[in-house]
Design goal:
heterodimer, A: alpha/beta, Rossmann fold, 2 domains, six-stranded mixed sheet, 10 helices, 10 strands, 27% strand, B: mainly alpha, ABC transporter involved in vitamin B12 uptake, BtuC, two-stranded antiparallel ribbon, two-stranded antiparallel sheet, 11 helices
């Protein structure tokens, strides 16, 4: 569904991502794990065209999207929920959700999606008329994911959904990610919490200083000694 | 008392014209964090086009206002495209310098003989001024025209920004460009649109100004531009209601100073307000100092 082939990305002279390749197949949850600065977020930002790759090619559903503009990519159903949630503080919860459906024209369908989001996140329904800026971190993350779902994503890119959340909320968010996937949305997940990410993902790519250093089935990687030592906090 | 009331109305008239200009400053600042110093000169171009419209081209004056608004909307978008977009992600001071450059360019280019020329022109009003006396207070048809036009524009703008999809896009871009992109907003087009709307409002302000104070020249935009900028800062730059509030206060302050203290002090008072705001409450009357959220 999504193929990233040999992309390199630079911030000025700094090479943030070096010749990375990976793919996501329809129906999968794929995760990119790795430490701070490994190039995970940069990879997502390159896919959604917020940054341009210096070289390489990205295809989504057999179309080359490398040179498309961000809004054209959104129109194709490739939706990116950014790091730090980016909830519009002066918009109500409802208006934030509506903004997620910005490119959709089917009014009835939008309302239907909104109901679905409210069923999935009853807390958001309670806070429907509250301003986005007044929500707690966990609620904001739910809103961010809900806003992503409002676009009817074919592929959902999630950047650090567990960032700054308590362990209980983190569990909750990952459970939500799992159910979203089970309902048919393909997910590319970026996480520093490698343990949780490997629980929910089918496959994983391990990034280190801008390169893919390992990849494979989550279950296999979970048991890999080097992974356990480097990311799961175990003494080798 | 009647004299005082008349001054209040004069202040309202001036304040509403400032509001039409201040909105452009504040909208552009809200969306790209740029003080568009060429905005006062767009106001000047608007005044000239309106003047040519109803005096040389024989257009009915409402149509002249409309033509001026459309031409200036194009001018505003063109300025953004040429002078600001290439610098959008450069340091802010760079874009600011570019804005000052555009301002000088418009002033001096328009002063050329084949453009508007360097001389003052007296505006022949497209209709006669009529005065009415209501309970001892005199108001003119020009004041009524300014009041109605400005209020319609302000209400229309509020509707556009708060109730339409384009408005939602503008507010999202103003929150964060990348977030807007991820929602599917075409950020370049939204910014362009914002410049267009701001310039059109300034043009309407310019034509009304030319009708109310019937003398125009190519440097006429500087003072109203600076005062409208002050108004936007006073109300809280980036906030549309703030610009309106600030402009109304500026209009009153200026007219009251001229009427009751000295007309030579009117500009001094206006800019004293700017300095005072920056010292005491830099975020403006309606602005909030936002704590950084990590």
């Amino acid at each position: 569904m999504l193929t990233v082939r040999n992309i390199s990305v630079y911030y000025g002279a700094i090479n943030a991502v070096q010749d990375i390749s990976f793919e996501v197949k329809e129906g999968e949850v794929v995760t990119l794990i790795g430490a701070n600065g490994a190039g995970k977020s940069t990879s997502l930002r390159t896919i959604s065209s917020l940054i341009k790759a210096k070289s390489g090619e990205i295809t989504f559903e057999d179309k080359n999207i490398t040179t498309l503009k961000p809004h054209q990519i959104v129109a194709m159903g490739l939706i990116h929920v950014p790091e730090g949630r980016k909830i519009i503080g002066s918009f109500t919860v409802r208006d934030n959700l509506k903004m997620g459906a910005f490119l959709r024209k089917d009014k009835a369908g939008i309302l239907e999606s909104m109901e679905e989001v409210f069923t999935r996140f009853p807390r958001l329904k309670e806070r429907e008329k509250q301003l986005g800026g007044t929500l707690s971190g966990g609620e904001q993350q739910m809103l961010a994911i809900g806003r992503g779902l409002m676009a009817k994503p074919r592929l959902l890119l999630l950047d650090e959904p567990s960032m700054g959340l308590s362990p209980i909320l983190t569990e909750e968010i990952f459970e939500i990610i799992r159910t979203i996937n089970q309902k048919g949305t393909t997910i590319l997940l970026v996480e520093q919490n490698a343990y949780m990410a490997l629980q929910v993902a089918h496959r994983a790519y391990v990034l280190e200083t801008g390169r893919v250093v390992m990849s494979g089935d989550s279950n296999v990687l979970k048991d890999d000694k080097r992974i356990r030592a480097a990311y799961l906090g175990e003494i080798a | 008392m009647d004299y005082f009331m008349e001054q209040v109305i004069n202040g309202l008239q001036l304040g509403l014209v400032y509001a039409l200009i201040a909105l452009g400053y504040t909208m552009v600042y809200g969306i790209v964090k740029l003080i568009n110093f060429a905005h006062g000169d767009v106001f000047m171009v608007g005044a000239f086009i309106g003047y040519f419209g109803f005096s040389s081209w024989g257009l009915p004056w409402p149509l002249a206002i409309l033509v001026s608004a459309l031409c200036c909307a194009c001018l505003g978008m063109l300025i953004e495209r040429i002078a600001y977009r290439p610098l959008r992600y450069a340091t802010r001071i760079v874009a600011l310098i570019s804005a000052i450059g555009v301002s000088f360019f418009l002033e001096y280019f328009c002063s050329l003989k084949f453009m508007f020329g360097p001389n003052y022109r007296v505006v022949q009003r497209p209709f006669d001024e009529v005065y009415w006396s209501i309970g001892g207070v005199t108001i003119s048809n020009i004041q009524v025209l300014i009041f109605c036009t400005a209020v319609c524009m302000l209400v229309g703008l509020q509707y556009l920004v708060m109730r339409t999809k384009m408005g939602a896009a503008m507010r999202t871009v103003s929150f964060d460009h990348d977030t807007a992109r991820l929602m599917g907003v075409n950020v370049d087009r939204t910014i362009s649109f914002t410049f267009g709307i701001g310039a059109a409002l300034a043009a309407v302000g310019g034509v009304l100004y030319a009708i109310a104070y019937p003398q125009i020249w190519t440097f006429m935009g500087i003072m109203p531009g600076l005062k409208a900028f002050t108004a936007a800062v006073l109300g809280g730059i980036g906030l549309i209601p703030g610009a309106m509030l600030g402009a109304l206060i500026m209009g009153q302050a200026e007219v009251m100073t001229a009427a009751f203290i000295s007309s030579q002090l009117r500009d001094a008072i206006a800019f004293s307000i700017l300095i005072l705001v920056l010292l005491v409450r830099p975020c403006g009357i309606l602005g909030k100092t936002q704590p950084e959220k990590v």
